[in-house]
């Protein structure tokens, strides 16, 4: 056993390390990776199917401006990412393909406080910085 381990170590001594220097070096994600949802407000009709589909009851339909600075409001989903299991059902069930999967797995998702994990329609639409309004 000892000899086997020494042989293994000698065989690998010149190979590069397999550890990743996260967060300095970003991980490579597969095409099917399901990260923070992206909302296309122009497609969303506020039907609430995503909210009714969510197995964790994570989505609320709220009124929000249709665009940054606009006084006109419509109904859009708001997601509490702290309870989201990233199953993707909300994306699959949306009749208008208004939701899609983003690639964020750290920014916007890793927070100090649960309340900062509330993704407003503006955050889901990436109209504002995902870390905007966070408390430390
Ligand atoms: S994101 Fe899709 S399912 Fe959800 S309210 Fe908008 S249109 Fe309906
Ligand atoms: S990915 Fe799944 S758990 Fe997360 S909001 Fe969508 S339906 Fe709910």
Summarize the model shown.
With 136 residues, the chain is α+β, with helices and mostly antiparallel strands. It has four helices and five strands, in the order αβαββαββα.
Keywords:
elongated; 136 residues; Alpha-Beta Plaits; two-stranded antiparallel ribbon; binds iron/sulfur cluster; alpha+beta
Description:
It is a single chain. The protein has 136 residues and is of the alpha+beta class. 18% of the residues lie in helices and 17% in strands. The chain is built from four helices and five strands, in the order αβαββαββα. The longest helix has 11 residues. The mean pLDDT is 91.
DSSP strand tally = 5
The best one-word shape is elongated
Structural class: alpha+beta
Strand order of the largest sheet: 2-3-5
Under the CATH scheme, the architecture is 2-Layer Sandwich
Estimated radius of gyration: 20 Å
- SSE pattern, N- to C-terminal: HEHEEHEEH
Bound molecules: iron/sulfur cluster
- CATH C-level class is Alpha Beta
């Amino acid at each position: 056993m000892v000899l086997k381990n020494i042989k293994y170590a000698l065989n690998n001594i010149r190979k590069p390390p397999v550890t990743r220097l996260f967060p300095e070096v970003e991980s490579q994600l597969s095409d099917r990776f399901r990260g923070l949802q992206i909302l296309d407000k122009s497609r969303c009709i506020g039907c609430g199917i995503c909210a009714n589909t969510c197995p964790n009851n994570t989505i609320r339909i709220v009124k929000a401006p249709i665009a940054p600075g606009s006084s006109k409001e419509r109904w859009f989903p708001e997601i509490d990412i702290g309870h989201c299991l990233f199953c993707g059902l909300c994306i699959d069930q949306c009749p208008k393909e208004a939701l899609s999967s983003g690639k964020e797995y750290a920014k916007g998702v890793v927070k100090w406080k649960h309340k900062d994990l509330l993704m407003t329609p503006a955050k889901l639409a990436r109209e504002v910085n995902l870390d905007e309004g966070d408390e430390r």
